[in-house]
Write a structure and sequence with these properties.
Blueprint: E1 5-6, E2 9-17, E3 21-28, E4 33-40, H1 48-62, E5 72-78, E6 81-87, H2 94-97, H3 105-116, H4 126-136, H5 162-177, H6 180-196, H7 201-216, H8 225-240, H9 244-257, H10 261-274, H11 279-291, H12 295-308, H13 313-325, H14 329-342, H15 347-359, H16 363-377, H17 381-393, H18 397-411, H19 418-427, H20 431-443, H21 465-473
Antiparallel strand pairs: 1-2, 2-3, 3-4, 4-6, 5-6
Helix pairs in contact: 3-4, 3-5, 5-6, 5-7, 6-7, 7-8, 7-9, 8-9, 9-10, 9-11, 10-11, 11-12, 12-13, 13-14, 13-15, 14-15, 15-16, 15-17, 16-17, 17-18, 17-19, 18-19, 19-20
């Protein structure tokens, strides 16, 4: 095989061999680059079921976009020889990188989560194969010393529970999608883990993070959420001690439920001391800094989060959003266009861009963007509120009032933060009613009211005494 060609690929050397086939170093003579080629063994190459399996493997790998997963360039067949062309990655195999005792079970899950985060629709498919491979590399406890007493057949430590690992991974992936349905499903995943095994700290932190986001997005009422978040964090801390993840969850709870900006700031700084490489902590600290109008510092933390997790869309999108709040709508719009180039179905980017377009006076474009956000997010109250706002700004008063009526009708049976109704009233220039809804939002501890110092619908209210009073009570008045 060495020295021969497969189409445009010249075989240079063998890199490895297994039961299914061989992997070769090859040169792409057209693009002038080195690649890795995997081909089936001569025994299996003529069997349709194995050819189909090779293609399935390649398609599954091609669906995963992650720096720790090789890129698949092509699947082809030459002279009856099926093969896969892949990115050539120099380095060691995972077996050579393994510590002698193997990976801890928790490390297995940590390695798998960012890979499964690339799976579509929250259904771990190809990445589950990676999880299974990592599970084989799990740490095994040493065998006990010999004993003269009769004992059962010796067994190694139990493998990672695939059900629990799958639930944790799927829950975190769904949490990242941030729609109402995905968050509610994520919460069920984490709760199912604690039902199966209450000694799983990552599940308790998942519960805390999801409860936080359900309230942060105005989906769930504040009610007892603060108590539930703190209880879940307490379970996690009892199991694994104080961690940056635990402190991050407590920090978000402190500022969104209690408007305690100083405590939250201290918690984030302590979390970063414990884990300076956490992209999520830098992201959420950036949000706090932005909400309290420390825009330059906040945007710097978003940039740090992006550097730590280049695949994260939320930090890039949120950097664009807070660039808007800092008074730079054109720059914000440009940043959000980058998000669309990475994922054209990411609803927060459409929402944020809708606000930027409204500030730029492009009201019809803003309506289009927020309509798309509403479709992708599942017609949540938050999206209806912002869509109603820009619709009112565009002069479509009756359409905006219809959206307000929809929100009020929904509030009869479900939780709808007063803040979202205030948005629509601001859009149709019912300023007194809008301020009254903001007052009701603060009185009811609506978590959304934390945004009134920066959110674009309130920029024209800055000289209103009633608005300034709200800021003063929230300790947000400069």
């Amino acid at each position: 095989m060495i020295g021969t060609t497969l189409g445009q690929f010249r075989i240079l050397a063998q890199l490895g061999q297994g039961g299914m086939g061989e992997v070769f170093l090859a040169e792409d003579t057209t693009l002038r680059r080195r690649v890795a080629i995997k081909r089936l063994s001569s025994v299996l190459g003529g069997q349709p079921q194995w050819v189909a399996r090779l293609r399935r493997e390649a398609i599954a790998l091609a669906a995963v976009n992650h720096p720790n997963v090789v890129t698949v360039h092509a699947v082809s067949e030459v002279d009856g020889i099926p093969f896969v062309v892949m990115e050539l990655v120099e380095g060691s195999t995972i077996q050579r990188l393994l510590p002698p005792e193997g990976f801890e079970p928790e490390r297995v899950v940590e390695l798998a989560i960012p890979v499964v985060a690339q799976e579509p629709d929250g259904r771990p498919g190809s990445a589950r194969l990676i999880l299974e491979e990592l599970t084989r590399c799990q740490r095994r406890e040493p065998s006990p010393a010999p004993s003269t007493a009769p004992v059962p057949k010796a067994v190694s430590a139990p493998p990672v529970d695939m059900t629990i690992a799958g639930l944790l991974i799927r829950g975190r992936h769904l949490w990242n999608k941030r729609t109402e349905d995905s968050l509610r499903t994520a919460l069920r995943c984490f709760q199912e883990v604690t039902d199966l095994d209450p000694l799983q700290p990552k599940a308790w932190l998942g519960i805390a993070d999801t409860l936080n986001l359900l309230s942060n997005y105005g989906i769930a009422p504040p009610g007892d959420s603060l108590i539930r978040v703190r209880a879940a964090v307490a379970h996690a801390v009892q199991l694994e001690g104080e961690s940056g993840d635990a402190l991050r969850a407590l920090a978000l709870a402190a500022w969104q439920f209690e408007f305690n900006w100083e405590e939250a700031d201290a918690l984030y700084r302590r979390a970063i001391e414990l884990d300076p490489t956490s992209a999520l902590t830098h992201h959420w600290y950036g949000v706090l800094l932005g909400v309290t109008r420390r825009f330059d510092q906040g945007i710097a933390h978003f940039a740090q989060a992006e550097a730590l997790d280049p695949l994260s869309l939320i930090s890039l999108a949120t950097r664009g959003w807070f660039t808007l709040f800092a008074g730079r709508p054109e720059e914000a719009h440009a940043i959000l266009r980058r998000v669309f180039s990475l994922d054209g179905s990411y609803f927060p980017a459409y929402w944020f861009d809708g606000q930027a377009l409204a500030v730029l006076g492009r009201h019809e474009d803003a309506i289009h963007s927020l309509t798309r956000a509403t479709e992708l997010a599942g017609r949540t109250s938050r999206m209806l509120g912002y869509l109603g706002y820009v619709t009112g700004l565009a002069g479509r008063r009756e359409e905006a009032l219809a959206l307000l009526a929809e929100l009020r009708g929904r509030a009869a049976d479900d939780y709808v933060p007063p803040y979202f109704q205030a948005l629509v009233l601001a859009g149709v220039a019912e300023r007194a009613e809008a301020l009254a809804e903001l007052r009701r939002a603060l009185t009811s501890r609506d978590t959304m009211v934390r945004d009134i110092a920066i959110d674009t619908p309130w920029w024209s209210f800055r000289e209103e005494p009633a608005y300034q009073m709200l800021l003063r009570e929230l300790k947000l008045l400069a």
